[in-house]
Design brief:
With 749 residues, the chain is α+β, with helices and mostly antiparallel strands. Among the domains are: 3-85 and 123-139, no CATH class; 158-214; 456-510, no CATH class; 609-748, PH-domain like, CATH 2.30.29. Helices cover 44% and strands 32% of the residues. Strand 31 and strand 32 (688-694) form a beta hairpin. The chain is globular.
Length: 749
Amino acid sequence: MPELKPNKSAFLYFWYLIATLIFLFLLPIALYLLPPITTLILALYLLFLVNRYYQFKKEKYVFHSDRIIRYGGGIFSDYKTEVIIKNITQVSLVKPFIENKLFGTGMVRIETSGASASEEILKSIDKPDYAYASISKLMKSSGFRLSKKELVQQEYPSLAGVFIDTLSFFLGGMVVFWFLAGQALIQAGYGWVIALYMAPLAAYSLLRFLDLRTRVYRVYDDVIEFSEGFLTKHYSFIPAENLSDSSLSQGIIDRMIGIYDVIISCQGAGKEIEFRHMANGKLLEKNIDRLIASKKTQKAEIKVISELKMDFAKTIALPVIFGVILILAWLVLLSLIGFLPGIGFVLFSVFLFISALIKFFATSYQIRPKSVASRFDFLKVQNIEFSNEMITAVTFRESVIDKIFGTMSIRFWSIGSSSDITFSNIRKDTAIIREIMKRFSFTGMKGVEIHSGFSIAEWVKSRVYLFSFILLLLTASIIGIWFSKLALIPLSIILLGLAIMMPYAYHYYKRSVMSFHDEYLHLQIGLLVQEDYYAKYNNIKSITTEHYPLSGKGSVTLSIAGEHIVQQGDYARSASNLAAIRLIDNISEMDELIDSLLMGKKASLSPKVLVECRPMAANTLTYVGVLSVIIASASVIAQRVFQFPVLYILPIAFIIPFSIIISILWVKMISYQIDSCRVVSRYGIIYRSQKSIIFQRIAHINEYSGFLNKLFGNGTVAVNTKGSSAAEMFVADIPNYKKFYETLKRNYK
């Protein structure tokens, strides 16, 4: 099976039919309600037809012994992506109900350890079962076992759990509809519309019930296999070699009926797969743990070497102190705020204390022979376990308060999970520290050391934007004194802040040191909260150095495999695991030096440059130009509609050309390079930065050429590493992108 193309009827004509039906449905509505929009709908319809045709012409899948390459694009774009067989974490076969019944086609999804989304999708292919099996054979020839000799456990979702899940979904849909429109419809005399809404909601809920009931999960001695779906069928397998971690979750209702959710992770951020409503969830998790622990060895029993608990005094100290402060503040301000607010203060203090007690009694940590685990068991159960070989970094954390109570925290990052395991508030025990250091081989000889060096001038250069803002505030406060003595208050606050920041920064950077050992890196930073990072060299994905303006100093930031979730209000995003050290000397030499150390060399490299290029400014200027036209047009319209003085929109006349100039300067300062051992990008105007990825850390690369790329004759190459939800580096808008791609492809293997 060297090459595959999609089935023309399924990929092209079937979607032509769907688009035509949608067009014929929208056309009379547009003609009746808004005739001018009819032209737009027709244009979009024709654009879809033409673009789909070009998608079919360009879509193909080429199979090699060590990789699968997908070619595709549309009218205005071309792309080429590849999947390295050894990096595959999950393969799925999907048989869409209507498409499969009409044409016998389906799709195959291939996920890898370099991104959170499916990295490769084989769309609308004939004989999808054969392609699914062929990929399995390719994986076997690349070293995966996938023999399925012994079925360890077969499991189905619990009927009670599926029923409650479906009922919750249906009732939730009804409640949302009721609050959004239900009451208004009844008051307006259109209550019958609710029945029209209930019918499809009930039908979908029934399909959801049947879908959950037909799921089957099988754990073999070297692979996990599962099937899902009532109408549209899904089949997947996950090789044991790329399994990462497992966890067990049980909510309050789940606990009442004795079911669990089992979550497993593969290599790569965002790779969690959830097996829901398992009656034998504990056994399933244990069997998966054994599978992860054994990998290429024989089965291992799950034993506990050390079980740790939180320190009682440290766990409740902060809630008690905070509660006492709240109550004392209420008593002091009693005459101003009255008696009733104090009740809230007391209740909140009690809540904090009870929460701390629950956390103390319900949380435990375990160090096992081949993993570490965290367990919370109160009204709900939450078990998280990381296998040793998937842990990418360990951090020992000790705050001032920890020193008082003799405690510490230990944080573990994993390549397969978007969260970490943190042993919080445990007693500081040198035996535990030695055990963890020995377990992850953080015991080699110390070699090169990089120290921070503090001076006020260099400190200011490292924080140019912050100190520019502080200088602005100082100037405003000093000028304000001439008009009002009250300006002395912000001036005093600023000066006091600087008086505190300066000695703190001096001692903070005096303690900062990055040391390189035989096979791992140790980063020591912090003052009030002291942290010691340990990471193996093969888990460091990329290195970024930043050169401060008018200085020989700078900072080094290491990106470590794996990611964590950052919650920003209602929005959550994945962020890289980073370790950084600032204010170090000879920054221009650091990137090459650290790259050489990561590859096991003792001296700085003199790499040979294979390809060097710069991006074209036309792409960026087009975006900036279009945005400028939109902003300028909106400003003029607003001025005329609301009769604003012309003076109000004059700043736009200065901002737009300034933005264009900055955009040109920014693009001109970017360069990309492939040398004999790595790929490098350089960028920045005030702060000059260099980011490098050595070849051994590259998982796969992609090339892409969109509308503007094709218009200006350039393209983009994406460089992906293991344990990232997005590309680690984008080599964007370069004219010789195909040469860059092919050169990198030949050298990083």
